[in-house]
Amino acid sequence: MRWSGKFKAGGEVSRLAAHIDLLPTLADIAGIDELPKGQVEGRSLVPLLKNPKAKWKDRHLFTQVARWRTGSEPTDHMWKGFAVRNARYRLVGNSLYDMAKDPNQTTDIAAKDPKVVKSMRAAYDKFWKEARPLMVNEKAPMSPTRPYHVLHAKQLKEGGIPNWQPPKL
Questions:
Q1: CA 60 – CA 115 distance, rounded (Å)
Q2: Strand order in the sheet with 61-64
Q3: Considering the entire predicted model, what is its pTM?
Q4: Which long-range contacts link 105-114 to residues 24+ away (Cβ below 8 Å)?
Q5: Which domains does the chain have, with CATH numbers?
Q6: Where are any strands of DSSP class E within the chain?
Q7: Environment class of 81 (CB within 10 Å of its CB; exposed 0-12, middle 13-18, buried 19+)
Q8: What count of Cα atoms within 13 Å lies in the side-chain half-sphere of residue 33?
Q9: 78-95, pLDDT tens digit by residue?
Q10: What percent of the chain has pLDDT over 70?
Q11: What value, to the nearest 5°, has the Cα angle with vertex 99 and ends 108 and 109?
Q12: Which runs of consecutive H residues, i.e. helices, occur in the chain?
């Protein structure tokens, strides 16, 4: 990011951030002091944009693929397709990676660091227990027409879909 007079261009921030941090960052830039409590989980990146070495409390970020059949109990799928990340480690299923030493995730160190695995699994368990009550549409019927597929078929019938051409830069 760059903003003349506000953030230095060409800086590098090596702290863990995610998409959830964009809204709090933009709100901070816009001068909005408070976002809705309990609805926005990210944090403003402005302190890091001003000073890449600013204090930044470590946290866990969670990924859950969340692909299960309509009507299924989500908790039956809790330990499938998930990952937990903090500043140093990433737990994917039962595999643990040291992201500082092995950013390509080539060496599973779970057997060497069982305490880290246990801690990250506990953090994910806590996250799931907070998230599960919010999954209120699990028994809602799916659309019988699958609108995206209907529109795609219509576009094909009415002249097709042009081949995408990369833009010339």
A1: 15
A2: 61-64, 82-85, 89-92, 95-98
A3: 0.77
A4: 113/89
A5: 1-57 (no CATH), 59-138 (3.30.1120.10)
A6: 61-64, 82-85, 89-92, 95-98
A7: middle
A8: 0
A9: 999 999 999 999 999 999
A10: 100
A11: 20
A12: 22-29, 46-50, 114-131, 147-157
